């Protein structure tokens, strides 16, 4: 799956699970970013491209869609996140697991590694026609529906502006 479809899958899962309640901006952002994390095992992914040493290393040692695409890796990721952002562990997990589900729909994954239990419901091939012309528009529409249904368009705008403003304020206070 393309990186933006993983982001859209993570945000959609988070919006549906929380029904848009709680700290929506931080949670949705954490889920969207965490939905990219399993592909750190591919130097050709969005995240892997930006962290070449880590991605080449993991892909060489562990392979793409290997141990990093498992619930065990998700658990380790949760521990890592809990050290820095304890409030965001659950949305981070939602994003991580949404990645495994979307990869199961586009090829297959081995979520219970080291046990051999591959899940493959190949509705889409990665980069294929159906991913681009069915999955992407469907994920965009579903996200739009979730925002409209759970939060409201105007309220979502306020949440985004406030969230970005808070992030900038935090970055400035960290520098100062
Ligand atoms: Zn993947």
Q: Can you offer a commentary on this structure?
A:
This protein is mostly helical and 176 residues long. It has one domain (3-175). It is built from 8 helices and no strands. Helix 1 runs antiparallel to helix 2 (24-34). The chain is globular and about 45 Å long. 38% of the residues are buried. The model has no long low-confidence stretch (mean pLDDT 94). Zinc ion binds at residues 38-39, 65, 69, 99, 103.
Give the bound compounds: zinc ion
The beta-strand count equals: 0
Overall shape: it is globular
Strand residue content: under 5%
Could you describe the largest sheet, including whether it forms a barrel? none
**Percent range of helical residues:** 55-70%
End-to-end separation: 40 Å
Query: Tally the helices: what do you get?
Result: 8
Low-confidence stretches: none
Average of the residue pLDDT scores: 94
Essential attributes:
8 helices, 68% helix, binds zinc ion, 176 residues, mainly alpha
Task: Spell out the blueprint of helices and strands.
Layout: H1 3-18, H2 24-34, H3 46-50, H4 52-62, H5 71-84, H6 89-104, H7 129-151, H8 153-175
Helix pairs in contact: 1-2, 1-6, 1-7, 2-6, 5-6
Bound molecules: zinc ion.
Give a brief description.
By secondary structure, the chain is an all-alpha fold. It has 8 helices and no strands. It has one domain.
């Amino acid at each position: 799956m393309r990186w933006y479809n993983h982001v859209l899958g993570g945000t959609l899962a988070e919006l549906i699970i929380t029904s848009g309640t709680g700290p929506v901006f931080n949670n949705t952002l954490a889920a969207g970013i965490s939905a990219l994390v399993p592909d750190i095992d591919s130097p050709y992914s969005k995240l892997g491209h930006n962290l070449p040493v880590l991605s080449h290393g993991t892909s060489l040692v562990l392979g793409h869609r290997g141990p990093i695409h498992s619930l065990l890796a998700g658990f380790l990721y949760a521990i890592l996140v809990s050290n820095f952002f304890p409030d965001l562990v659950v949305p981070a997990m939602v994003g991580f697991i949404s990645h495994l589900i979307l990869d199961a729909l586009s090829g297959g994954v081995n979520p219970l590694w080291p046990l051999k239990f591959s899940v493959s419901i190949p509705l889409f091939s990665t980069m294929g026609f159906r991913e681009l012309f069915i999955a992407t528009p469907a994920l965009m529409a579903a996200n739009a529906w979730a925002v409209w249904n759970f939060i409201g368009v105007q309220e979502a705008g306020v949440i985004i502006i406030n969230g970005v403003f808070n992030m900038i304020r935090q970055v400035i206070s960290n520098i100062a």
